[in-house]
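Input record (one chain):
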Amino acid sequence: MRVVIAGAGAVGTFLAEDLSANGHKVMVVDQNPETKSHFAVDTPIEFLHADACEADALQAAQLDTADVVIAATGDDEDNLVISLLAKQEFAVPRVIARVNHPKNNWLFTESWGVDVAVSTPHLLSALVEEAVSVGSVVHLLNFKNGDIRLIEVTLDSKSPAKNTMLMTLALPREAAVVAIVRDGHVITPRTDTRLSDGDEILLLVGNGCEDAVRRLLVAS
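The corresponding structure, as predicted from the sequence alone:
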């Protein structure tokens, strides 16, 4: 997979090194001429000294051959411009954008070319809720302009789904259980998997079906 990362700050540098170590072809685009010195001398990561907000720079980075673009600069306006250019001018299949200021999160939508927006404050808040919330729905991540969400529900002893097999749970068509965490172990969901109180259930839910999922899993 070819990944182009715009921005070589702490976030961009970490992502580049991690993705490269996992065997992906990575290019970093940054205005700082010292960018390359942040990495090991023998790194296979490619570098382009340019302004990623300019279409010519993204053309030079061959964005039309990229599978994923990550807009990881420290400026939300720049990340939006990069995302829009990547999607509209180069038809990049997947664009991921970093949200620096949580109040700007509403801007990072499909209309700006963003497939997935990553806001560290929102993720931290979700992780805190996930750690302390039992018997409630916790939002972990939004996809496709919020139309698809990853949510987590930890079943309590009063859940209507307790002791129910997934095949009889009657989830909406636009909802799917993707994993169950039980006693510190990840369980791949099967139709005959029986739910127990204390199970942490991860689900992908489409727009409009979260309330139905809530009624099935959370005690009223």
